[in-house]
Structure formats: C-alpha cells, structure tokens
Amino acid sequence: MGLLDACGLGGAPLSAEAAGASLSHVSSWGVAGEADGHLQFPAQAVEVNDLTLVACAGHAGAAVQAFRPDRSLSHKLGQKADAEIAFAYGLAADGALVAVADFGLHRVQVFRDGGLLCTLACDGLVNPQAVALAGGLAFVAGGQRIFAFELATQKVAASWGGAGGADGRFAHGIRGLAVHESRDEVYATDCENHRVQVFTKAGRHLRTLGGGAGAALGAALSLLCAPPRAVFDRPWGVAVRGELLYVAEHGAGRVQVLTLDGRPLRSLAPKGSGGLAGLAFAGESGELLLATDFGKGRVHVLSTE
C-alpha cells in the first residue's frame, strides 16, 4: 500500500453531526490516595442515577466507590462476601445494571440496584480490564481476547482475538470497549498497538483505526493526509454515539473526537492531566463525558455540546 492509499485521499464529505462536533472541559474533581473517598489510579467512571461510580485499580480491596453529586462518598460495591471485588478495573452501566471487571479474580460481576445479579467467568477469561453492556449481552475483554456473554444464561455467545499485531489481534490487553447498537459494532482499544479495532457483535473484524507507525511518526504522516487519518498514543477509553467516536489516550493525555471511519475532528487535553484511562457518557441526555485520569487521581467532566 502506498502512502496516498494509506492516507485515504479523497474521503466522503463530513455529515452535519461530524462537522459540528464539539468538546470542552466542564470540571475536574478527585484527590489521589488510598483512603475512602480518594481516587488511587481510577480506571473507569460511570454514572448511575445521581451517583458516579469509580473503579480504582490502586485501592486496597479495590472496591468500586459511589459518589454523590457533591462528590462525597455514598457507599462502596464489593464489600459483601458473596460479591467480593479483588481488583476492580473495568466498569460499565446500562440502566439499573452495573458490571465490574475484576482483574484479580478473573471475572465480571453484574449488579442490579446494588445487589449481585450474576457472575460471568469462563475458561480463557484472564485478567479482565474492560466491559460493555448492550442488548442483553456483556462484552468482556480479558488478556488478548473478547468474550460476549448472554446475561440471561451467563453463557459465552462468541469470543475472538489473540496476541499479536495483525487485524483481530491485540497486544498486552484490551483497555476499553464500547458498543454501537444500531450499527452492530464493537469498538476495542488495542492500547500497545496504538489503535482501535472495530468488530461485529459476533466478532468479525470490520476495520482498524490508527496503528502502524509509532505515535510521533504517525502524527507527522497524518498531516500529509487528506483527510487526516487516526493517530493514537496508547488509546484506553472509548465511547461511541451517532456518527462520532470518542477515544481517551493514556499516552497523549487527551480525548479525541473522530468519525466512525477514523477521521479526526477535535481533541482536548484537560489541563494538568496525567495518563487518561476510561471514558463514558453521562448527563441527562448523554451530553457529558467522564474521563478518568489514571495518573493524577481525578475525574474530568467534558461536554460534547
């Protein structure tokens, strides 16, 4: 493939939604530390009703903490014997359901209204780091594989992946998952390969965004492309809605807005951010994004309007 082919010269005109893409900083909150109410290596935050749940990989006991709107601590998940959490890493919410990926116990626990609903585990699921809920399925990333569990039966409906750099394979774990239900697409951040891979819900590879050259070289090459191509520096969190894709980069400390085929539109680096991690929609109509700052122990609230 030549340089011009790789750049994707030409490209379709931007839609109104993509052309009007916006991203701005609203606020930041949190204090790094292992005490209750502090955030030590926050990996993911989600909003459930009027609470913000935060999974902190550095906390003793690694329980998920729930914060009120005034940022005071309400309670913690994973404190009961039948729902112990050893090492919370991934976190997802869908209505009243909350899924917690437990890196240490090699499983995902699904809670409803604070009580344990079910536990998801299988042969081959190792050190899960990301989870997404959609359409009665839980998509779980563990090691270099993705598993699609049926919530009703806790059985695996599909699985795919493996170690490596080819399409459909991953290097050193998958840090983020997001599902675009209307397009039947699953987005997975391949952090150490500096790319985002897109699959059907059954695991068929559709396209790869980013990757190839290293972050610095890739950024330079992107400037030559018309339209520019996606370039990521250790992408971690991912969220998708409508015609827009949002990616939080651990290496660059920024959030990018892109089209679904990987054309960069906007980017924002929250002031003083460390390595960004998880990303999730929040707000009454999903107009906000919660980006966890793994290095600084904070949650950044961004607006997409």
Would you give an account of this structure?
It is a single chain. This protein has 305 residues and is mainly beta. It has one domain: Neuraminidase (6 Propeller), CATH 2.120.10. It is 6% helix and 47% strand. It has three helices and 24 strands. The strands form six sheets. A four-stranded antiparallel beta sheet has the order 1-24-23-22, with no helix packed on it. The chain starts with a helix and ends with a strand. The relative contact order is 0.16.
Descriptive labels:
single chain, 305 residues, Neuraminidase, 24 strands, 6% helix
Classified in CATH, the superfamily is: TolB, C-terminal domain
| Overall mean pLDDT | 89
Number of strands: 24
Q: Which CATH class is shown? A: Mainly Beta
Structure summarized in a few sentences:
The protein is mainly beta and 305 residues long.
Topology:
Blueprint: H1 3-7, H2 16-19, E1 24-29, E2 42-48, E3 51-56, E4 64-67, E5 73-77, E6 88-94, E7 97-102, E8 107-112, E9 115-120, E10 128-134, E11 137-142, E12 145-150, E13 156-161, E14 176-180, E15 185-190, E16 195-200, E17 205-210, H3 215-222, E18 235-241, E19 244-249, E20 254-259, E21 264-268, E22 276-282, E23 288-293, E24 298-303
Antiparallel strand pairs: 1-24, 2-3, 3-4, 4-5, 6-7, 7-8, 8-9, 10-11, 11-12, 12-13, 14-15, 15-16, 16-17, 18-19, 19-20, 20-21, 22-23, 23-24
